[in-house]
Specification:
Elements: H1 3-14, H2 25-36, E1 43-44, E2 72-75, E3 81-83, E4 88-96, E5 100-106, E6 112-121, E7 130-131, E8 136-140, E9 152-159, E10 162-164, E11 170-171
Parallel strand pairs: 1-11
Antiparallel strand pairs: 2-9, 3-8, 4-5, 4-7, 5-6, 6-8, 6-9, 9-10
């Protein structure tokens, strides 16, 4: 995602504009409160049963089309639960050609957490929902451009200035 696209999306989410017509006013207020807080410095491992030391660093690895990998691939068995790495608000549940089944979570300090290649999302997950590290977002899979690769979660963290490597922040549950 380009910095310009991210900046517009982050502003819309931070201001609660995406919830004006589709969610209670309390959701927009919570987004604003989260945006004003200091960003999280520790992210709990989102893949159930995986440890931070089990992750092979894939940050900035070359990808097709001249892209660099903006995130970490967390490999696990298909269907392994994916939990939120932090507290926040679900801002999107989408399916895209690149990320496949994706959940976006807005967190403290205007950070956005991107959980991609999910086999499925949790059946009870909804846009506007408050999540904690105990909330299941979905299940490890190979959706999107991960079709044909080993099952994994692609975890990315976006700030207003662009993507940052989540690996140094990952901690065991």
């Amino acid at each position: 995602m380009s910095k310009a696209v991210y900046a517009v999306a982050a502003l819309v989410v931070a201001l609660g504009l995406c919830f004006v017509a589709c969610a209670p006013a309390a959701t927009g207020a919570r987004l604003l409160a989260l945006a004003r807080q200091a960003p999280d410095t520790v992210l709990l491992m989102p893949v159930d049963g995986l440890g931070a030391n089990d992750v092979a660093d894939s940050w900035a690895a070359p990808r097709g089309g001249g892209r660099l990998h903006e995130g970490q691939d967390l490999f696990a068995d298909r269907g392994t639960p994916v939990l939120s790495a932090t507290r926040g608000i679900v801002t999107a549940i989408v399916s895209t050609p690149l990320g496949g089944n994706v959940v976006w979570v807005a967190g403290a300090g205007r950070r956005r957490y991107y959980y991609a290649h999910l086999e499925t999302t949790a059946a009870d997950l909804e846009v506007g929902q408050w999540v904690t590290p105990d909330t299941t977002l979905g299940f490890v899979g190979t959706s999107g451009n991960a079709n044909g690769t080993p099952p994994h979660l692609h975890l990315a963290v976006y700030t207003p200035d662009g993507a940052i490597d989540p690996l140094p922040m990952l901690a065991d549950r």
